[in-house]
Amino acid sequence: MPLTADAVFPCDYLLDAEGRGVVAAAIKVLEESAVFRNDFLDNTAAIKNYCVLRFAGLVREEFVAIWADSLGRIISVETLATGSLHQAVFHVREVVRAGLANNAAAVIFAHNHPGSDTEETCKDAVATFLLKSALMLVDIVVVDHLIVAGGEALSFVEAGLMESRFASREQRDLQ
Fold first, then answer.
1. Which helix (H) or strand (E) holds 64?
2. Confidence of residue 172 (pLDDT cuts 50, 70, 90)
3. What is the value of pTM for the model shown?
4. Given phi > 0 = left and psi -120 to 50 = alpha, else beta, which region is 165?
5. Tens digit of pLDDT for each residue in 53-68?
6. Could you tell me if 139 and 103 are in contact, meaning their C-beta atoms sit under 8 angstroms apart?
7. Nearest Cα to Cα of residue 127 among 161, 153, 100
8. Which residue among 37, 115, 118, 171 has its CA within the 20 to 30 Å range from the CA of 69?
9. Structural domains in the chain?
10. What value does the mean pLDDT take over residues 29-37?
């Protein structure tokens, strides 16, 4: 799903029109690049940097899926829910439907905590567990879940909050 300047920076007071256009153009170039499409899931730092840029300036919580194929190549980035300051409500069945519609084999979830920190909440942990359980039934692996706030991103995998069962590039090359 292409991102627009309004989707990235919905608040006029954060950037002027030219600034929003520059950020939107940067995200579009990144999403269309071969590096983004081919090597992204193997590079947690790149994923975190992309998500920090993607969520910069948002004052409402958004829940995003980064869908990938079985080789870890990005298929699409899709906003699944936009909410309020403290939550973005989504339905597990709609997330499963989106994964199947994208013919995805893997996904990274990301959401922001506007005006907060990256610390995971009980709701974040429960949502991740429910999504992993539901998507496992249709052979879609949840690779990671990121929380973005204040220019930083927390990776559930790096923080030891979940395991990723997605094979790294080296493991895939051995198969």
1. strand 62-68
2. very low
3. 0.77
4. alpha
5. 888 888 888 999 999 9
6. no
7. 161
8. 118
9. 5-174 (3.40.140.10)
10. 59
Q: What is the pLDDT of residues 36-51, one digit of tens each?
A: 555 566 678 888 888 8
Listing DSSP states for 124-156 in one string gives: HHHHHHHHHHHHHTTT-EEEEEEEEETTEEEET
Q: Is-contact 125 154, C-beta < 8 A?
A: no
Q: How many residues does the chain have?
A: 175
Angle between helices 122-136 and 92-101 in degrees, nearest 10: 50
Element containing residue 18 per DSSP (H, E): helix 17-32
Q: 24: Cβ–Cβ under 8 A, 6 or more apart, which residues? A: 3, 4, 5, 7, 8, 9
Give the residue among 49, 71, 50, 53 at the shortest CA–CA distance from 9.
53
